[in-house]
Amino acid sequence: MIFKSKSNVIIALLTLILILVVLVFYFINNNKILTSKVWHSNIEIDITQTSNNFFKHEIKNLQKVVISGNIKHFKNNTYFQDITLSIHNKENETEYITAIAISGKWDYSQGYLFFETDKIDIIDIKDNARIPDKVKKLFKEITIKKFKQTKYIEPFDNNTLLMIDIDGSTSLWSVVMEI
Questions:
Q1: What pLDDT, in 10s, does the model give residues 73-125?
Q2: Structural domain tally of the chain?
Q3: How many other CB atoms are found less than 10 A from the CB of residue 71?
């Protein structure tokens, strides 16, 4: 790039500095948004619509799965998630509830939130024993995978984030508590 005047050089340098300031502010602001709040998401999945033959046979009396979770990102780039997975029958009665706690490290770069898991604890809270173990295991694995995926963050405002997973699925996260 050849500049014909000193003023063009100054304008180019000021533009570059402005771009860098905006990028640094964006990074700092997103980290602050993540670390200053406890975030919540609630996902309901209608499992009666599945075309998978395994599920049709194994879950014939089930209606939906609800995955509800909170996450806190700490300034030292660690995080803690508590997730509740519940499976409901066609009468909307809860058949199965499990609590999942996940902790580890997080990083934010270029709009993406990355997770590295250190520990996962799973505690069954309610189990009517009518759901086959292989179905419970599968839903636990799906839930853990869902919450551990790298996510692209699209902030709506300071209290709502749209999280876009690598697989293209989306979820809204809203503020539970400001810290």
A1: 899 999 999 988 888 888 888 888 888 898 999 998 888 888 888 888 888 88
A2: 1
A3: 22
